[in-house]
Amino acid sequence: MKKTKSAFIGVVILFAVWVMLTDTSSSELLFGGFTALLVVFLFHKKLSVLEDVKISPKSLIYMFMYLFVFMWELLKSNIDVALRVISPKLPINPGIVKVKTTLKSPLGRACLANSITLTPGTLTVEMKDEFFYIHWIDVTSDNIEGATKSIVSNFEKYLEVIFG
């Protein structure tokens, strides 16, 4: 059952990417669907990581909500870093902080680490068990709880529902 779920998710993701990158004519859609099925068939053993994704109406809603939250955090971080570059008077207090996650899924943790890294001003340096070590451009809290609240909490509540 889990392999079927992983294969289904893999086909859906590959086909969605295909549709975004190509024309929506019937021949393109047919070829994209066939290609997605072929790729999943050839690499089905590598798709076991997708078993962690929950498929439910609530998780699908949270996926869309997560995209908006991520984009908002991305915008805020870009503006923050740009202002620090333009105005040398703004403080830069770089450092590495330790944050804690409650996510159990390896895929969920990887998505969290990538989300942190993709937002300017933060970089995931290491993942060790439930702790992440993050390089932060302006350390405002050096304790685990404060740094976790500032960096992780906005992403984690959505990823918990999506990945568990």
Short structural description:
With 164 residues, the protein is mainly alpha-helical. The chain has helices at 2-21, 26-42, 57-86, 106-118, 144-151, 153-163, and strands at 95-100, 122-128, 131-136.
H-E order: HHHEHEEHH
Widest sheet, order of strands = 1-3-2
Total domains: 2
Class of secondary structure makeup: mainly alpha
Enumerate the spans where pLDDT stays under 50 for 5 or more consecutive residues: none
Which secondary structure elements does this structure contain, and how are they paired or packed?
Blueprint (H helix, E strand, L loop, with lengths): L1 H20 L4 H17 L14 H30 L8 E6 L5 H13 L3 E7 L2 E6 L7 H8 L1 H11 L1
Antiparallel strand pairs: 1-3, 2-3
Helix pairs in contact: 1-2, 3-6, 4-6
Plain-language structure description:
A hairpin with a 2-residue loop joins strand 2 and strand 3. The chain has two domains: 2-51, no CATH class; 57-163, no CATH class. The longest helix has 30 residues, at 57-86. It has helices at 2-21, 26-42, 57-86, 106-118, 144-151, 153-163; strands at residues 95-100, 122-128, 131-136. Helix 3 packs antiparallel against helix 6. Strands 1-3-2 form a three-stranded antiparallel sheet. It is globular. By secondary structure, it is mainly α.
Task: Supply the key terms.
12% strand; mainly alpha; 164 residues; 6 helices; 2 domains; three-stranded antiparallel sheet; single chain
